[in-house]
Design goal:
With 384 residues, this protein is α/β, with parallel strands linked by helices. The chain folds into two domains: 71 residues, no CATH class; 289 residues, no CATH class. It contains 13 helices and 15 strands. Strands 7-6-15-13-14-12-10-11 form an eight-stranded mixed β-sheet, sandwiched between helices. A three-stranded antiparallel β-sheet has the order 3-4-5. Strand 3 and strand 4 form a beta hairpin. The protein is globular. The protein starts with a helix and ends in an 11-residue tail after the last helix.
């Protein structure tokens, strides 16, 4: 039975009306720059220029802008996930549902030309400051450590190859710490090194990174017996869960390591000019973004000052240029560093060389996970 002309017009009218409503919502709803649920920077309004049109950057950024700010995006993702699970699909929105409730972000062969450019920016920066003590720490994400936990027929490009490539590019310019070296053996013990539902390492994983860096700096790392290890929440559903909306996933627990001999630290956040007497923000434990319990989330620039007794097991100042993996590791460093200066280049637009000179800083730690590093075009600003 054919549709009547009236019903055809009604269907067409309904479709057009729906498109108009979505367009109005897209234009009217406020645009945010950062997704707390996914813990990532959202695509900003693309820059319209001939160079961006010529190299296709404008079209790529435009597509990402529409995708990131689509009205009621979270609801659509949830609906798509439920439909995919009914079809027994093990992937949604770039996230695999692996064995034992582990979620993983897809990782494909990267653009090595971009990786080389970012590494070259770091190498040149290190050469500009040859008198400084610099270290680059590159940590794999969970899919790099646990490829055997992927669902059947799923695969991932080896992050170990990426880390080895970056190490080779940086050879001779600064010290390099490969996360596979200090996480690999511990990752297959009972204690989780990564969250199942989130892209970050656990506090235990951060502790292992701290011990590796402490030895690199010539410090004696604090043993776990020097900490009271407490679980602050067992209801953490992280960024991978938010993106995939897979059902039946067991929440993660978040631990905090509190020194048995506490030290007083003061954290100053330059973004808003506020000072905090704690490195942990309990208010986030009742929110979606529970990982922001560490340091209160992402900031362009912060300083952490700690009252340390004089000792050879410490340094005066350290600049940390990082992604959010650093947030759960930085509290460990307060046992060895009087002044931590912390910069997130996704938001900081100042000249880092001038900042080091103004603050008399001679120690630098770059800390990134492999996936974030491959998207860190901001590193190109190091020479600015």
């Amino acid at each position: 039975m054919k549709n009547s002309p009236l019903s055809d017009r009604l269907l067409a009218g309904g479709f057009v009306t729906s498109l108009l409503i979505m367009a109005v919502l897209f234009l009217a709803l406020p645009k945010t720059t950062f997704s707390e649920a996914e813990n990532r920077v959202l695509q900003g309004l693309p820059e319209l220029s001939w160079s961006h049109i010529w190299n296709k950057q404008f079209s790529q950024e435009s597509e990402a802008f529409v995708t990131d700010h689509f009205p009621m995006r979270a609801g659509w993702v949830r609906l798509k996930s439920e439909l995919e699970q009914l079809r027994l699909q093990r992937e949604n929105n770039g996230i695999y549902k692996g064995k034992d409730g582990h979620l993983f972000e897809k990782f494909e062969q990267p653009d090595y030309a971009k990786a080389a450019a970012y590494a070259e920016a770091v190498r040149q920066f290190a050469q500009m400051h040859a008198e400084a003590n610099m270290t680059f720490m590159l940590a794999p994400t969970s899919i790099g450590i646990y490829p055997e936990r992927l669902p059947w027929l799923a695969s991932a490009y080896p992050q170990s190859k990426v880390n080895a490539f970056v190490k080779d590019q940086l050879q001779g310019s600064l010290a390099f710490l490969d996360g596979f070296d200090f996480l690999g053996s511990a990752a297959h013990n009972e204690r989780p090194v990564y969250y199942r539902t989130d892209h970050h390492w656990t506090t235990y994983g951060a502790y292992l990174a701290y011990t590796a860096y402490a030895r690199q700096m010539g410090w004696s790392p604090m043993p776990e017996s020097d900490f009271n290890i407490q679980t602050v929440t067992d209801a953490f559903l992280g960024s991978y869960h938010t993106r995939s909306q897979f059902s039946g996933v067991k929440p993660d627990s978040i631990e905090v390591y509190l020194p048995k001999k506490p030290l007083h630290s003061t954290m100053y956040i330059a973004d808003d000019g506020t000072t905090h007497e704690e490195l942990y923000n309990d208010s986030f434990l009742s929110k979606k973004d529970k990982y922001s319990y560490f340091l209160g989330g992402v900031h362009a620039l912060m300083t952490i000052k700690t009252e340390l007794p004089l000792s050879t097991n410490q340094t005066d100042k350290l600049l940390v240029i990082k992604d959010s993996y650093a947030h759960s590791m930085l509290p460990f460093l307060t046992s060895h560093v009087r002044e931590l200066h912390v910069i997130d280049m996704r938001y900081y637009n100042g000249n880092i060389s001038e900042y080091m000179k103004e603050n008399d800083i001679h120690n630098v730690l770059f800390l990134f996970n492999t996936a974030t590093f491959l998207e860190s075009s901001e590193l190109l600003k190091l020479g600015a």
